[in-house]
Amino acid sequence: MASESAVVSRLPSTISQNEIPAIGTFGDYTAYPMEVISEDQAAQLFSKICQRGNPVLQGRPAADLLVLGRAMYRKAMLMRLGQVFLHTASGDPVALGFSWDVAEGGVWKDSGLEMPASLAAHAACGKAAFDSLQPEKRSDKNFFGGFFGVLPPHDGVLFGILAVCSFMMAHELGFQDGFQFTLLPTLNKRGGVFGKFGENDDNLNWHVPFAEIAAEKAVSEELAELAGTVNVSLTNLDYAIDGEEWMARCAATVRLQTTEEMRRPPALMCTNHLQWLRQRQTQSTSMITSRL
User: Fold this and answer.
1) Model pTM?
2) Burial degree of 115 (CB within 10 A; 0-12, 13-18, 19+)
């Protein structure tokens, strides 16, 4: 069983400010906070993963996808909640997840990077998803699960672990809702989280057809020809993390059999990651005080 191979070691009782500890293991893979790898490494991995099944990223220039990967990394570093799995034997990064506060906007906002023209359709889809989160649906505590991906042929369960862990960390930090969207139709075919389930107060799902996305003429024509859909969800984090329905759907998405298999690895990673962040904050405060 997957849960039997998921063992997360306790953090050392003291961690120096510059150490980046492992926060968990799953089979042949070890999880770390994102900053254990550089922006360039994250961008390289993202560029190899992001095209799979994504109609508005397939066939885009590799150099442009690297820029998008760098923007993702910078957004994830705002709260330091991004995570990466390294293949334990080789040390190579093979899976990663980027998340941030919805209030920080889309991936390009304040990234310091210029969006490549070839990614205009992708950006239009992202803007449409954020714009579709109407004021009555928003709170000041919306968390965005931005991107999660695994490099083939590595274990696809890592995708689910990263996604669930991001929502668990958001829940622990006091966020109210988890916001996410996908352009990948395959994610809707396994009983996943982008179908309608639960009451509206617990979970909202809606769709934005590519043909209805406002953009400049060339981009609108491209999107209309692709005939895809932006599938969006906004899920109450109490409902997601404390209940069974959302967790069961996450398990089904990565073909796990039980919610326990899905829940246990990210829960332990969440605990270790947040413990490390809090220790860093405490150490930084102590260092500042000692210099006064």
Assistant:
1) 0.89
2) middle
